[in-house]
User: Fold these one by one.
Assistant:
Number 1:
Amino acid sequence: MYIRPFDPWKSKLCTCPFKYTLNVYTGCDHACVYCYITSYIPNAFRVRTKEGFLPKLERELRRFDKRYIIALSYSSDPYPTIERELGITRKVLELFRRYGVRCMLLTKSDIFKRDLDVLSELKCAVGITVTTVNERKAKLLEPNAPSPGARIRALRKAKEKEIPVYARIDPIIPLYTWEDFDKTLKALSFVSHITVSTLKLKPDSKKRMSAKFPELMERLWPLYEKGERISGYYYLPRELRFKILREAEEKVLRNGITFGSCREGYRSFPMCDGSHLVPS
Ligand code: SF4
C-alpha cells in the first residue's frame, strides 16, 4: 500500500489528527544536515522512483475514504530536484483532482509553483518549511534545497490563487536559526498557520551537525546533554524548549496566524499540523 496512516515515528508527543500520508519518492536529495530520515531510510539522500507507482496508486485512490486527508509527504519531500524533470508529483495531484482527494502538501522546494493550476482545483492546503530566511545559513543547513526566498515567493503565488497556505519553522536551532526567528516570521506573515518545532537530534543527525557546525555544536550539545530523551530523540531541556515555544507562540499569534507545535508536549490551536485549513 502506498497510502498509509500517518505514523509519527511512534512519538508519544505527537498530537496530529488522524490522516494518511503518501511518499511519492523514496529518499530526498535536499540533504538537510539535521534530517532524521537517514536513521530509517537506507541511502536516504539518494532519490528513487517506485516501480509501477501511478497505476497502483490509482487503484488505491478508487477505494480511498475521501473524508480523510492525504499528506504529501512526511518521509521525503514531494518535490526533490528530479521532480522538475519527471513530474510524478504533478501526476499524483492530477489523480487527487480526479478522485476528489483532500490533501496537504509540505515542501522545502519552490517547484510546486509549476502545479498551482492543479492545486487551485483541489481541496488542499500548501505549506513550506523554512528554518531561517538567512540565505547563507539555509544553504549550509539544506545544501540542495531551493533558497528560502524562492520557497516563500512560490507560496505567495499560491496565496494569490486563493489556496490556503501554511508554513513550518522547523527545526528551530537555538544559538543559530532561533536568532533569525523574527525575520523569518515577518517573511511568512502572509500565511494562515505556522507550526514550529525545536531541533531534535538522532545519533546520526548529531554526527552530521557536529561535522558541519563544530563550533555551534560545542555550545549546543551540552544543552542537549542536560535535556530529555524522548522516543529515541535528544530534546532540549523542557524549560528551555518551552521558553522558546512560548515566545514563538506569542509572536505568531500577534501576527493573527494560528499556532502549532510539533512533538513538543506543548499546546497548539486549533491543530498542530494546519490540517484545519484543508477545505472539506
Ligand atoms: S527536505 Fe526533509 S526529508 Fe528532505 S532531506 Fe530535508 S529534512 Fe530530510
Number 2:
Amino acid sequence: MIHKGKVQTVLGPVEPGDLGLTLPHEHVLVDMTLGACSAEVLINQTESGRAAATTAQAGWEPGEDGPGTAASFRARWNEPICLENRADVARNWFYYGNYKIASIDDVIYEANLFKRHGGGCIVDQTSIGLARDPQGLQQVSRATGLHIVMATSYYTFEYHPGELEELDVEGVQDRIMRDIEVGVGGAGIQAGIIGEVGLSTTMHPREEKVLRASARAQRSSGLPLSIHPGFGPDAIWAAVRILEEEKADLSRTIMCHVDHRLASKPAPNSFDPDQWLDLAKTGMYLEFDCFGWEESYRQRGKIDMPNDAIRLNEIMALVEAGHGHRVLMSHDLALQHWQRKYGGHGWQHIPETVTALMRYKGFDEDLIDQILIDNPAEFLTIA
Ligand SMILES: [Zn+2]
C-alpha cells in the first residue's frame, strides 16, 4: 500500500511536518567495493576507479592503461585508518578498500551525533547494487529515533544484478514497484524514494532501461525520484531528455551531485552558473550533496572540486534567481574516513558548521529552514 501525502520511512509512513532537519542524500550503510579483494580489482571494475587511477601520483604503474598498481599502493588495501595514514586515505581512498560504511555500531554513533546537533531525518540513497540494508536501516532508526528513508531502483551498470540483462523496462518497473508497494527485507520494509538511479558519463543501455523504468514507477507511485548523472552537462541533459520522454514529474525529481558534475571545462573557471540556472528552469531539484568534501586532490581528471564556501555562493546565485525552493544540501557520506570516529566531518557537519557559514554569508533563518527542512519534506511527500 502506498501512503499518499506521507513520507515513507523504514518504520512506516510519517507526516512530512515531523521530519525536521533532513539530509536528503546520504549512505547510512553502503558497500561500493563490489566484493573486490584488491584496489586493482576495484579500479578495473568502475568508471570512478579508472578515473581515480589516471593521475601521476595515483599509484598506477606508468603507461597507458598500465598493468596494475604499484607495490606500496597495493599494500594499503584493508589497512585500518589511523592518525598516520588519515591524510593519505583522504587523497588515495580507492587504495584502502574503505569504500564502504558497514558497521551498524559506527553508524548509530554517527547518527546520534547528527541528532544531537538538531538532525531529524536521513535519506539513505543506497540503491540496489550498493549492498542496501533494509533491516540495518531499521536498527539505526530504532536505536536513534531518527527518521530514515530507504531507496529503490539501481545504481550504475557495474553494480547491476544479473537479472537486469533479461528484464525489459516493464519488468524493471515491476521490481521497483514491488519495493514500493510490498516492501523488502522479509518484513515489508517499503522504499520512500526511487534512486539514486546510477548513470555513467556515456549512458549504458541497461542504465537507460532502469532510468525509463524509474520514471514510470515515479508516475504510477507518486514517489520522489533521484538521478546520479555521469560527468558533464551532456550526461545531465541526456538524462533530462529521457525523463521528459517518459513524462517524469521533474518538479519531484533531484539531479544529484551538481556541485561537481556540471563542470564543462578544465579548471580554472570549471563552473558556469548559467548551467545551474538552465537546469533549475526544468523545475528539478538541484542537489549540492558533497558538503564537507573539500579535498582538492581527488584523482578525478581536470575539474576542481569546490569547497563549502563556493557551494554556498553557487546556491545563493540560484536563490537570487528565484530558485531557492529547488535547492537541496547533503553530504553523500559514503566513505568510512568521512565519519567522525575516523577523523571525518560526519553528518553533524551541515547542522553544526555549514549553517553558521550560511548565516555569515547572508542566508536568513527562513531561507536556511526552507533549504534544510521544507524543501526535503516537500520533495519526500508522496504525491
Ligand atoms: Zn551518487
Number 3:
Amino acid sequence: MAPEHRIRADVVVFGGGIAGLWALAQAVAAGHDAILLENQSLGYGQSRQAQGIIHGGGKYALRGVGDVAAMRAIRDMPARWRSHLSGEAEPDLSAATTLSSVCHLWLPRGSWRARLESWGMVPVLTSANVLASRPRKLARSEWPSPLDTSAVAVMQMDEPVLDTRSVLSALATPLLNRVFAYQGPGEDDTQSDAAVQFMRRDDIWNEVHVRPAADERPVAIEAGAFVLAAGRGNAALLSRADVDPSIMQTRPLRMVMLRGNLPKMYGHCVFGGKTRITITSATMSDGSTCWQLGGEIAEAGVDDESMKQTLRRTKSELARCLPGFSLSGLRIASYRAVRAEAKDPQNRRPSGVHLERVGANAWVVWPTKWALAPLLAEEIVAQLPAPAVPAVGADRAMAQFGFPVPELAPFPWEEARWIDVD
Ligand SMILES: Cc1cc2nc3c(=O)[nH]c(=O)nc-3n(C[C@H](O)[C@H](O)[C@H](O)COP(=O)(O)OP(=O)(O)OC[C@H]3O[C@@H](n4cnc5c(N)ncnc54)[C@H](O)[C@@H]3O)c2cc1C
C-alpha cells in the first residue's frame, strides 16, 4: 500500500532497549533530528531481563578467563556509568536507582582448587592494566549474611548493580517526544512485508514505510541514517532490507527466580573456571525479595523444562554454591530469555560491542552487554553523517501522524507464574 504521508528525519533508530535508547540520546545531544521506533514496549527484549551488573572485568579475572579484549573493553564501564548516575555526564541518569554499589564474588566451601586456580590470574591481569580495580578480599565480618556459612572466601568488586527499568526510564523520559511505537514485525517474523518496508537504491537506504497501527496506511520516513538496535528483532529487520540475517547469533537461557523472605544479594559464585550462579535481587510489589539466578544455572535446562526439573536443578546448584541455604518457604518461577549478539565464526560468546555497516548509511548493532551501551552509542554517533540544518522536525511530524508513545516493559518477575518450593 502506498504511503499516505512523508516525514524526514536525520536518523531512525529501531529498538528501544538500552542500546537504542542510549544511541538516540547521544545522537540528539550531537544535534541530530533523530527518532526511535519500537514495536513492543521499551526494553521488552533482553534489557528488562538483564541483571543490571555494570561489569568491570573482575568476574572474568577471577574465573581465570584470559580474554584480554573483553576485559579491556569493559574495564572502564563502572567509572563511566557512575559519571552518568551522578548526573555529571550526559545522558543524565541521576533519576535511576542503584541497587548496590558493589558486587560480590565468592568461592563456596569445598572449592580450594578453584580458589588457587583463579586467584593466580588477578595479579597478572592487574599488572597488564586490564582490570579497573583489583577485587578486594573481605574480612569475614564484612561478608553478606547468606555467605556466612557457605563461602570460604568473599571478594568485593566496585561494580554497581542497577535497577534496569529505572535506567531505561531515566534515558527515555527526556526523549519521549522522539520515541514512537509502530506495528513492527514479530521477533521471529522474517517473512511478511506488511509491517515494515525498507526502500533502497543500491547501497543507500532511502526510506522506510511503517504504520502507527495495523489498520492504518503506512507513513514513509526518509532518513539520512538507519540504526538497527532491535536486539533479537534485528534479524527480522535485516531480512526486510535483503541483508542476510545470519550475521546474528542467539543463545537461549532459562533464568530462575526465587521469591520470599530473602536477604538482598548481588554476586557471583565462581568455581571450576565458571560463573556457576549470579544472584541479583529485586523488591516485589508485596515487599518480598526476588532473587534472579543467572550464570551457568541459566545456560542449562533451556529446553522445555518442567518446573519440577527446574526446581531439582536449582536445589542441587544452590547446595553447591550456597551450602546450608534452605529454600523452604520460598516460591520459584523461571522464564526463557534469548541473548542476541553478532555472529561469532566459532559460535563463541563475543566480547566487545558490535557495529556493522549494512548499507552506505545503515548499521546493525549489538552491545553484547548492557554495561557496554555507552561505548556502543559513542561508536554509532561517530559514524553518522552531519545533522541537517535547520532541524527537520521529525518528532512533531510523527506525533501528528498518530504514532503513539510506547510503554516501559514490565520486569519478568512481575509477570511470572510462581509455585511453592515445598
Ligand atoms: C537474563 C539476562 C541477564 C543479563 N544480565 C546482564 C548484566 O547483568 N550485565 C550486562 O552488562 N549485560 C547483561 N545482559 C546482556 C544485556 O541484557 C544485553 O546485552 C542488552 O540488554 C541488549 O540490549 P539491546 O538494546 O541491544 O537489545 P534488547 O534489550 O533485546 O532490546 C531490543 C528492543 O528492540 C525492540 N524490537 C524488537 N524488534 C523490533 C522491531 N522490529 N522494530 C523495533 N523494535 C524492535 C524490542 O522490543 C526491545 O525493546 C543480560 C542478558 C540477559 C538475557
